[in-house]
Amino acid sequence: MTRSGIARWFHGADLALCAIGLSLLGVALVAIVNSRVYQARQGRAFSEVERRAGASASRVAPASTPASEGPSAAALDVDPLVLGRIDIPRIGVSAIVREGDDDATLSVAVGHIPGTARPGERGNMALAGHRDSFFRALKHIRVDDTIRIRTAGRRYEYRVASTEVVAPEATRILDPTGDAVLTLVTCYPFTYVGNAPNRFIVHASRLEP
Amino acid sequence: MKTLMKCLALGAFATLLGIVSTPAAYAQSDRENSTFTVTEPVDVGGVTLQPGTYLIKVVMLASNRNMIQVTNEEQTKVFASVLATPHTLRPNEVVPTSRYIYYTAAAGQPRALRTWFARDTTNGQDIIYPKRRAMELAALAKEPVIAIPDEVKEADYKTATFTVVTPDQNVKPYEEPVVVVQKAPVPVAVVAEARPVKQLPATASHVPLFAALGLLSLGGAFGLRALANRAV
Fold first, then answer.
1. Which residue of B has its CA nearest to A74?
2. With 80 as the cut, is the pLDDT of residue A158 above it?
């Protein structure tokens, strides 16, 4: 092959790699933007739902007057699978919690693992989040940290009791319990690209109001 | 420069393909809507739906009212836009499996939807009927039915006054259920004893992997370009 032939070949490969690289970066960017937009939109809608729930709960007399408060229906784009919001103030975790633990859910929110207790129920409520987004800061969590779960009109506070690293098959951590406990699940190690071999688990107990 | 432009164009095209093929987590099929099929006529808020498959969804209007829209599956045609009020679960009331609760119907008459629970949620919607139809339903079902004046149009949904038609055909002012915040019994989670999942959920996103591969590819491309320049 002549030198110009080699140069042409390199040129073609360069073009292909460049396109592949930009595409992959583009897809990653789209995923990040999609997640941010979802969180922002649902965060706004959830705050409005919380406000309305608060207003409705504080109403003493039965109201038959028409309600006209709040933004229009079109503006309030509520995802019905949103259960609430999780906040861990010390490490800066704050995300919308959505029902489900499928890829689509976990790519935009913290997911409530189906079959486990729901917010407000007695039992083991398990939430899963991506290690490289919403639950990245869990690597800094400590025993006695406070975790807040907010649903429309209710607030629950949990205190971190322990953390552990388990194999992905250790579904025992989802087993029902008699007490109100919260279990957070994310991938481990935190500095790993792709499917991590283990899971990082946070166990927390609910504080009675 | 020309090569870079070509790369950008190709990259933009491929990214566009990625955007189009990326499933949105909150795509319409996942929202507070359900597709349902009826094999006989059904009354939803005074509108009779003929046998067929429909999509039902909630549009929030205010704290005490929502609009329920029934459309075709493609959401290109609206069959009904009716008012509803959030259903307040009574103590010990559980969300029914069917998620569609009907009033008792007279023989030969279409069943009327009383409450719809969106799937995967405990959010129920009590359908509100025009007064004339509410009177029929209340008498038949022997239970109160929430009503709005017959002449109310969709544009007036946000301000329409609710009333309650009793089984003995009296019309009373609607009283919003009081939300009991403190003394509600704490429900015990219904958890499957034999857990069907074999693994904990996969909690690694592909974003870092894509980003890393993307950067590697770009690095490789620049390396090849340097080699190509040297070969010339």
1. B59
2. yes
Contacts 24+ apart (CB under 8 A), A89-94: A89/A146, A89/A148, A90/A142, A90/A145, A90/A146, A91/A137, A91/A138, A91/A140, A91/A141, A91/A145, A92/A137, A93/A134, A93/A135, A93/A137, A93/A138
Contact flag A168-B178 (C-beta cutoff 8 Å): no
> Counting beta carbons within 10 angstroms of the beta carbon of residue B101, is it exposed (0 to 12), middle (13 to 18) or buried (19 or more)?
middle
pLDDT (tens digit, 9 = 90+) per residue, B116-130?
887 766 778 899 999
Which residues are registered as beta bridge partners of B106? none
Q: Which of B116, B109, B118 is nearest to B139 (CA)?
A: B109
Q: What is the ipTM of this complex?
A: 0.72
Sign of CA dihedral A96, A100, A105, A111: positive
Instruction: Report residue A104 CA to chain centroid gap.
Output: 11
- The reply to whether residue A80 touches residue B158, judged by beta carbons under 8 angstroms, is no
Q: How far apart are CA A101 and CA A88, in angstroms?
A: 20
Count CB-CB contacts under 10 A for residue B180: 11
Contact assessment for residue A185 and residue A168, using Cβ atoms and an 8 Å cutoff:
no
pLDDT at A13 over 70: yes
Q: How many beta-carbon pairs under 8 angstroms link A with B?
A: 299
The C-alpha of A143 sits at a distance from chain B's nearest C-alpha, in angstroms, of 22
Contact yes or no for A132 and B207 at CB 8 A: yes
d(C-alpha A136, C-alpha A92), whole Å: 10
Q: How far apart are the C-alpha atoms of B20 and B8, rounded to whole Å? A: 18
CA distance A97 to chain B (A): 13
Q: Is B211 helix (H, G, I), strand (E, B) or coil?
A: helix
Using left for φ > 0, alpha for ψ between -120 and 50, and beta otherwise, residue B75 falls in: left
